[in-house]
Specification:
Helices cover 31% and strands 17% of the residues. The chain is an alpha+beta fold. β1 and β2 form a beta hairpin.
Length: 136
């Protein structure tokens, strides 16, 4: 399924390219939450993180800190968020794996997050651990 990101990778849609290697492309978000808001995507067309190959995941892992350092240097902004969503219920809008590097220059710009933490019950944790470890 073609997405706006696959069209950008193919050169069908222009972008403000920040970084590119054989597996990763990074470019400025056209609807930024703050100056320097950058999208980092694999060239592999996987919609969700768990569907991404280990090679592309490793390439993203190598590129993200490098790009974050460049965004910090360019914007002078030390605080930032790295955001990655999977599926519409988790606020994913483009169904191609992507990470947002979002500078947080002040209280009014950047990513705003509402966080409602719960409590982890010991018995529930043990059952969940067993299931996750079995899936690994």
């Amino acid at each position: 399924m073609a997405t706006i990101f696959s069209k950008i990778i193919a050169g069908e849609i222009p972008c403000h390219k920040v970084y590119e290697d054989e597996r990763v492309l990074a470019f400025l978000d056209i609807s930024p939450l703050s100056p320097g808001h950058t999208l980092v995507i694999p060239k592999e067309p996987a919609p969700y993180l768990e569907e991404l190959s280990e090679d592309s995941a490793a390439a993203l892992g190598r590129a993200l800190p490098k790009i974050a350092r460049a965004v910090i240097a360019a914007t002078g902004c030390k605080a930032y968020n790295v955001l990655q969503n999977n599926r519409a219920e988790a606020h994913q809008a483009v169904f191609h794996v992507h990470f947002h590097i979002i500078p947080k220059p002040n209280e009014d710009e950047g990513l705003e997050i509402g966080w409602s933490p719960g409590r982890l019950d010991d018995a529930a944790a043990k059952g969940l651990l067993a299931k996750i470890r079995a899936a690994l």
